[in-house]
Specification:
With 306 residues, the chain is an alpha+beta fold. It has ten helices and twelve strands. A hairpin with a 5-residue loop joins strand 1 (3-21) and strand 2 (27-46). The radius of gyration is 19 Å and the shape is globular. It binds cytidine-5'-monophosphate (C5P).
Length: 306
């Protein structure tokens, strides 16, 4: 095999409950993730011996993506090469649809797609638990990008349990001008909490009940994100996006992860289009995208002998 492509989905957090800051700097959290049909693709192509891992990027926010070893896809390829005991000579090409630094785990999706593509390219034959372990070492959201669907994450967010979820949900994502740094949003959350005691995060019964019954209206009313006040504090203009969504009767809305992307639920196909148009043209959004969820996690889309 000379070349393998894989794609992995973006996520939205239906619930994100943030506990106290741990000694290692991370926060214990409870997160209910849903994978949505916005995908990044990573093509891994064998390269000349000695060329190492190189990366090129096209698509949404491509100029913002680092091309060195801070790129999670590069680190994913290096990790698979080590496990497979092969020289890490590979050219990665990333095609982005997921916003960069948007709170939708685009970097994690790239890592998950690179893990899956390189595992096949180098015939490493790693099983699911091994890929999940390597993924968790790369970033808290990488395991979910591998698994997809709807799942509860605990620990840093990397320990996953599938959630019983019915139905299909129609999301509109309002993309902001500029991004937010995840560590800065967590730090702002800590700052805003001050010395107040922090409750241990628990799974929301309302979110789980809404998912079990497949009720988009109930889910819309139950969306919660403890990082939302911090994201709004760092980017106050996001408030107006929620006002527009309310005017166009979104079933609910939430800042996605650490933001600044905001996610809104629509009632039906027509309302999905109406919300998309409304949120595409506000003063404070760069653009809007629509997608449904849940969808599957990272998968090979094509393996060719090119
Ligand atoms: O794991 P990941 O690299 O995605 O995390 C990025 C940053 O987000 C961490 O360095 C940390 O500052 C913050 N974070 C956190 N608690 C978590 C997950 C992430 O504080 N559970």
């Amino acid at each position: 095999m000379q070349s393998v492509a894989a794609r992995a989905p973006a996520k939205v957090n239906l619930q994100l409950s943030v506990g106290a800051r741990r000694r290692d700097g991370f926060h214990d959290l409870v997160s209910v993730f849903q994978a949505v049909a916005l995908y990044d693709e990573v093509r891994a192509t064998r390269a000349e011996p000695g060329s190492g891992v190189t990366v090129t990027v096209e698509g949404e926010g491509a100029d913002l993506v680092p091309l060195d070893e801070t790129n999670l896809a590069v680190r994913a390829a290096l990790a698979i090469a080590e496990q497979a005991d092969v020289e890490p000579d590979v050219a990665l090409h990333i095609t982005k649809t997921i916003p960069v630094a948007g709170g939708m785990a685009g970097g994690s999706a790239d890592a998950a797609a690179a893990l899956v593509a390189c595992d096949v390219l180098w015939e490493a034959g790693l099983d699911r638990p091994a890929l999940l372990e390597i993924g968790a070492a790369l970033g808290s959201d990488v395991p979910f990008a591998l698994v997809g669907g709807t799942a509860v994450g605990t620990g840093r967010g990397e320990r996953l349990t599938p959630a019983l979820a019915r139905g299909e949900y129609r999301w509109v994502f309002a993309l902001a001008e500029g991004g937010l740094s995840t560590p800065e949003v967590f730090a702002e959350c800590d700052r805003m909490r001050g010395e107040a005691p922090v409750l241990e995060p628990r799974v929301s019964d309302r979110v789980m009940a809404a998912l079990r019954s497949g009720d988009a209206h109930a889910l819309g009313r139950s969306l919660t994100n403890d990082l939302q006040p911090a994201a709004l504090s760092l980017m106050p203009r996001l408030r107006s996006v929620f006002e527009v969504a309310a005017k166009f009767t979104a079933l609910g809305g939430v800042v996605s992860g650490s933001g600044p992307t905001c996610a809104f639920l629509a009632r039906d196909d027509l309302h999905h289009m109406e919300l998309l148009f409304a949120l595409s043209s506000t003063r404070h959004t760069r653009t809007a995208k629509r997608a449904t969820g849940p969808v599957h996690g990272a998968r090979v889309v094509e393996g060719s002998v090119r």
